[in-house]
Amino acid sequence: MMTRRHLGRGLIVGGVLAAIGWFLVAGTLADAEAADHARLHAAMVAVLLLVAGAIRARWPSAGLASWAPTVGLLLFATGQAFEAIGAIGYDATGRQMLAELHDVGLMVTPLGLVATVIGITISLALWPGRRAGAARWVGIAAAIVVLVGGLAFVKTMIGI
């Protein structure tokens, strides 16, 4: 049976293995520029999975406060994984069929960015939880700042 701690560790190990594997495979499947593009996205997948795994491993029983950012990071990592696989579909002669996966990733990544921002916002809003007084308001203020700043960042990143 997979426990919450196992899930965190599995994400960490999976992220590292995915990055190493894709770094090795991308160079043999594509020209240099496309391989570098694929490696960039693979590195992002590894980082996102490492962060998601660290959150789950550190706070396994925090409920929504740890699940919300983890789900956002996993969606973001999924978009980046599609982009990593699809990036090798570009070469000097033009687009190949595999490049369509890159386009799928371009659709999923903004959703993952928004979900991550909302997840972090939820986590910050729940963090002070049962505390009274200033601590509760600090958490809510931090959540509002992250939500507004994060969505402004996402808007800039996806070009809306």
Write the layout of secondary structure elements.
Layout: H1 4-29, H2 32-58, H3 64-87, E1 90-91, E2 94-95, H4 99-126, H5 134-158
Antiparallel strand pairs: 1-2
Helix pairs in contact: 1-2, 2-3, 3-4, 4-5
What would you note in describing this structure?
This protein has 160 residues and is mainly alpha-helical. The protein contains 5 helices and 2 strands; from the N terminus they run H-H-H-E-E-H-H. It has helices at 4-29, 32-58, 64-87, 99-126, 134-158, and strands at residues 90-91, 94-95. It has a two-stranded antiparallel sheet. A hairpin with a 2-residue loop joins strand 1 and strand 2. Helix 2 runs antiparallel to helix 3, helix 3 (64-87) runs antiparallel to helix 4 and helix 4 (99-126) runs antiparallel to helix 5 (134-158). The radius of gyration is 18 Å and the shape is flat. The termini are far apart.
Number of strands: 2
Largest sheet: 2 strands, antiparallel
Rounded radius of gyration (Å): 18 Å
Mean pLDDT: 81
Strand content: under 5%
Distance between the termini: 44 Å
> Which spans have pLDDT < 50 for at least 5 consecutive residues?
none
Helix content: over 70%
Count of discrete alpha- or pi-helical segments spanning 4 or more residues: 5
Structural class designation:
mainly alpha
- Inertia-based shape: flat
- What is the spatial order of strands in the main beta sheet? 1-2
Q: How would you spell out the order of helices and strands? A: HHHEEHH
